[in-house]
Amino acid sequence: MDDSTQSIVFHHLTSSTALQLAILAVLLFLSASVSASETAFFSLSPKNVNKLKNSGSRQAAAALKLLGDQDYLLATILIVNNLVNICAVIVSNSVIDGVVGFNSHIVEFVVKVIVVTFVLLLFGEIMPKVYAAYNAPGVTKLVSRPLLFLKKALHPFAYILIHTGNTVNRRVAVRKGNISMDELTNAIEITSDQTVEEKKILSGIVSYINTEVEDIMRPRIDIVALDYRTDFPAVCRIVMESGFSRIPVYREDLDDITGILYVKDLLPYLDAGPDFDWQKLCRQPYFVPGHKKINDLFTEFQTSKIHIAIVVDEYGSTLGIVSLEDILEEIVGEISDESDVNRSDYTRIDPDTYIFEGKTHLLDFLKIVGLDEKTFDDVKGEAESVAGLMLEVRGDFLKEGDTLRIGPVRLTVESTEGRRISRVRVHIDRSALQHHHSPS
Fold first, then answer.
1. Tell me: domain 213-327, CATH 3.40.50.1580, correct?
2. pTM for this one?
3. Which CATH number does 344-432 carry?
4. Signed CA dihedral, 89, 94, 95, 99: sign only
5. At CA 186, angle to CA 185 and CA 189, rounded to 5?
6. Which of the residue ranges 147-156, 234-243, 324-333, 424-433 would you say has the lowest mean pLDDT?
7. How far are the Cα atoms of 6, 228, 242, 270 from residue 266, in angstroms, in the given order?
8. What is the three-class DSSP state of 132?
9. If you count DSSP H runs as helices and E runs as strands, how many of each does the chain have, helices first?
10. Which of 72, 126, 161, 213 has most Cβ atoms within 10 angstroms of its Cβ?
11. Model confidence over 114-171: pLDDT tens digits?
């Protein structure tokens, strides 16, 4: 008999050891169940979640409740998994001592540490997680109600775990320090590897993170919309004249937008008579607050598979509309198509003189004339457009010929439509760029 055989002595199986062996089997099953549940819950696709919502079963309801608070779900799974694995290691050590006697510390180490760890990993972690990855909905339903009970039972411990983790994360984040957007932009500017176009796109990505929907939306005054009562021939005419592929539809006024008409939905009915009920083609509008970040809206557009949203204020009044194209243009710059040919917002008269549309956004204006984005920060207030800036500074309506000077910029009202400033002549005094004057 070789040395390895002599170093192991087998004992008779007692009733106490048999009970411990049964307990170990239960613990191994629990470990496998908890590991499988972690993979199942966090690998559910949106389609699977929708099926759970439509299921109506108590298991599905429990699963959705757990998914609604994923931090506590994960904390509960981790606590249970660790407790079960610790108990499994303790019981397995007792079982091994009851069944086997060791005359070699090396063999004892191999059996108690390496073999036990391998068995726990294989049957308690790896195999359950592989199975759950391919059967996520079924496993989720199976474990949802027991997990919901455990979540409630272990809530105080999960609370401590979550808030301790958040505190550590905040402190680590502070120690790492925050890189400002200006620093990122400067870093992009001093890199020499990128082309001008690449630098422009990278700068767009940096500003994209903190840009709000209000900053890029088409304002209310420029919205082309359809009255719900408009007859079909008039609808076709407005669609042709606007050049837009998606048009809001309202009942009373722009604060009561009830749908979005997709022009492509009209194509099969172009030969329909004047009494055609075009309203039935309208799709449900999507509303977003003006202060929503555009990176969040972009994700929502992707998830919901929509391309346009109505921007509203806290009272539900319509501020404007924003499209997927508007968001993409923040990153890659202007995207021109056949409908944009005659929609230029400015004309350059000479190197320092321009004619701008009054509705031109201030950030676009400053980029075009080559001024710093913070040029008007001290005076613009809530203004977002060139015309809005002039009204903010003057504090009253302006008429044709009125002139304002703001630092190095001279703004003259070129034309108006009613009380609205439609066009503005702009002259940049390059020599005054180093001496920023107050508005006069």
1. no
2. 0.40
3. 3.30.465.10
4. positive
5. 90
6. 324-333
7. 87, 15, 15, 6
8. helix
9. 19, 14
10. 213
11. 888 888 889 888 999 899 888 888 899 899 999 989 988 888 888 888 888 767 666 6
**Distance between CA atoms of residues 213 and 288, nearest Å:** 8
Give the position of tokens 């190095």: 408
**Beta bridge pairs of residue 428:** 409
Could you list the beta-strand ranges (E) of 136-273: 218-219, 226-227, 246-250, 257-262
SS3 state of residue 141: helix
Tokens of 124: 């308690």
Rounded distance, CA 405 to CA 177, Å? 40
d(CA 203, CA 122): 48
331 versus 326: the higher-pLDDT residue is 326
Taking a C-beta distance cutoff of 8 angstroms, is the pair 400, 413 a contact?
yes
Contacts of 119 (CB under 8 A, 6+ apart): 28, 92
How many residues comprise the chain? 440
Compute the distance between CA of residue 367 and CA of residue 65 in angstroms, rounded to an integer: 48
Torsion sign over Cα 114, 115, 120, 126: positive
Tell how far CA 302 is from the center of its chain: 9
Q: How far is CA 127 from CA 36, 119, 134, 385, 434, in A?
A: 9, 11, 11, 60, 69
Select the highest-mean-pLDDT range: 4-8, 42-46, 85-89: 85-89
Q: How high is the pLDDT of residue 426? A: 92
The domain locations on the chain are 3-171, 179-210, 213-327, 344-432
